[in-house]
Amino acid sequence: MALRRLPYHGKECSFFATREKYGESPSEFHIYATMEVDCQHALEVFDEDVTERVRVLSPDVCHVALRRAGEVVLLLGGTSGGSCQGAIEMGELLAPDATYRVSLYDSLSQTWRQVGADAGATLRNPALGIEPAGFKILRFVQVSEDATELPAAMPDGDGARTQTDKGAEGTGTEKQ
């Protein structure tokens, strides 16, 4: 479920909510939003809705993109009765010379997986297949400002995050 640019207390709120399974635990409701939301679910807060800056070249795929410093998360949902392919144009959302670690959540397998790390210029035009009535989440996390500094290995873990809190300087920090 996704909602964009909802007027709320003088601001606009965009969010998407998913059921994501982490390891052996049951599926958990997870909310990605552009403002703090009082809820009992996993929450990640992003600075802005950048959906209009992302182009998906398929009428059968809807999307929502959110961004905060050093990170972009993109929800892609299939709207057709069958499987569909979606070519994506990220535009200028990823700095061309920066290195990003990419994670992918697949609703069919109910898993997060590390895709790899590469320069923003290389990652700007991904394409994904989406199962009927399914969704995928792409997460791009900047790990370096210089693409010549590719990480030697991907960190362990499934890319799962739970609750985002505001730190002392207003930046998002995640609790594991």
General description of the model:
- The chain has 176 residues and is mainly β.
- The protein contains one helix and 15 strands.
- The chain has a domain at 49-160: Sandwich (Immunoglobulin-like).
- The strands form four sheets. It has a six-stranded antiparallel sheet with strand order 5-7-8-13-10-11. The chain has a four-stranded mixed sheet with strand order 1-2-3-4, with no helix packed on it.
- The radius of gyration is 16 Å and the shape is globular.
- It starts with a strand and ends with a strand.
Rg, nearest Å? 16 Å
CATH topology of the domain at 49-160: Immunoglobulin-like
- Roughly what is the average pLDDT, rounded to an integer? 75
Helix content: under 10%
What are the secondary-structure elements, in order, as H or E? EEEEEEEEEEEHEEEE
What's this, in brief?
This protein has one helix at 120-123; strands at 2-8, 11-20, 28-33, 42-45, 48-49, 55-56, 61-68, 71-78, 84-89, 99-106, 111-119, 127-130, 135-144, 163-166, 172-175. It has a domain at 49-160: Immunoglobulin-like (Sandwich), CATH 2.60.40.1180. With 176 residues, the protein is mainly beta.
Write a concise keyword list for the protein shown above.
176 residues; 52% strand; four-stranded mixed β-sheet; mainly beta; 1 helix; Immunoglobulin-like
SSE layout:
Elements: E1 2-8, E2 11-20, E3 28-33, E4 42-45, E5 48-49, E6 55-56, E7 61-68, E8 71-78, E9 84-89, E10 99-106, E11 111-119, H1 120-123, E12 127-130, E13 135-144, E14 163-166, E15 172-175
Parallel strand pairs: 3-4
Antiparallel strand pairs: 1-2, 2-3, 5-7, 6-9, 7-8, 8-13, 9-12, 10-11, 10-13, 14-15
